[in-house]
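Example for tutorial group B:
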């Protein structure tokens, strides 16, 4: 499956990228970056550094949006660490490609019509801009896997909103309403598949992906000494692309609240219609095992 990962690394993005690059089922053609967990400069540096660390220095990295459609991003350095990652990877030697992310996404969808999946792990600004600029994206993109939303559970930024959707609700509304076949991995299924300190300390990390995951998550636990559950939102979204049977889905039309107020960024599903498969349940233990396995290969 040909895939582009749109991402704001971000600790869990880093694990998700390692999994995707390891996967024999995914042919990752490039990474597109967006501000979100950290500034665009940081997320882009991290994407380049991750590709190099994982032995894929040739992987195209395209820089995208530094701000959402409206307003500005509120970064999450407190959660992901200084620079957006809890580890400082070596300075990348590669450079971003000259094409900006929305144009790169549209170009790649045009080049691989009906074949390309986009795995979106950050605010949806780049994807929305790609669709605005090239509406034929709607028929070219095979499937979108989106990490975002809190449909039946509380949000993690406000009681109503999850971080990626809250960061750019206008873009999220446009993308989820675009008609592109989409799988939505929201906080509804992110609560249970977790890594614990025992998972990390018990592993004899051997591969680059495992080493990365161990250092990133170890760093995360060090940053938050009271935290003992590392949530796997972005990794689960990559898992959903290759192991959809781990989830129970229900088809819906999903709308996003874009009006300022306490419900800003809320995702609402109208079941029985629409182009979005909302993940409503996950087999948590199996999903955690799949994440670990996907990190280990390579
Ligand atoms: C999402 O927000 C970010 O902090 C994570 O990387 C993930 O994509 C979870 O709400
Ligand atoms: Ca992310």
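The residue assignment follows.
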């Amino acid at each position: 499956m040909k895939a582009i990962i749109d991402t704001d690394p971000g600790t869990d993005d880093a694990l998700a990228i390692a999994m995707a690059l390891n996967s024999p089922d995914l042919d990752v053609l490039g990474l597109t970056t967006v501000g979100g967990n950290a500034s665009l400069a940081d997320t882009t540096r991290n994407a380049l550094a991750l590709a190099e660390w994982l032995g894929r220095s040739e992987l195209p990295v395209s820089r995208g949006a530094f701000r959402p459609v409206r307003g500005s991003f509120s970064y999450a350095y407190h959660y992901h660490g200084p620079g957006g990652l809890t580890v400082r990877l070596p300075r990348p030697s590669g450079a971003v490609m000259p094409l900006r992310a929305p144009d790169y996404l549209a170009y790649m969808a045009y080049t691989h019509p009906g074949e390309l999946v986009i795995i979106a792990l950050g605010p949806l600004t780049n994807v929305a801009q790609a669709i605005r600029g090239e509406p034929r994206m709607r028929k070219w993109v095979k499937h979108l896997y989106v990490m975002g939303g809190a449909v039946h559970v509380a949000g993690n930024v406000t009681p109503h909103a999850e971080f990626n959707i809250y960061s750019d609700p206008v873009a999220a509304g446009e993308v989820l309403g675009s008609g592109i076949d989409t799988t939505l991995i929201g906080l509804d299924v992110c609560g249970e598949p977790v890594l614990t300190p025992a998972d990390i300390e018990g592993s004899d990390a051997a591969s680059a992906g495992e080493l990365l995951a161990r250092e990133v998550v170890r760093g995360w636990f060090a940053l938050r000494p009271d935290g003992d559950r590392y949530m796997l939102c972005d990794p689960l979204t990559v898992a959903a692309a290759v192991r959809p049977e781990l989830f129970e889905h229900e088809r819906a039309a999903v709308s996003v609240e874009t009006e300022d107020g306490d419900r800003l960024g809320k995702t609402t599903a109208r079941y029985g219609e629409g182009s979005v498969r909302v993940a409503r349940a996950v087999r948590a233990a199996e999903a955690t095992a799949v994440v670990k396995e996907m990190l280990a290969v390579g």
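Residues 2-295 form a domain with the Inosine-uridine Nucleoside N-ribohydrolase; Chain A fold (CATH 3.90.245.10). Compare this with the pattern of hydrophobic and polar residues in the output above.
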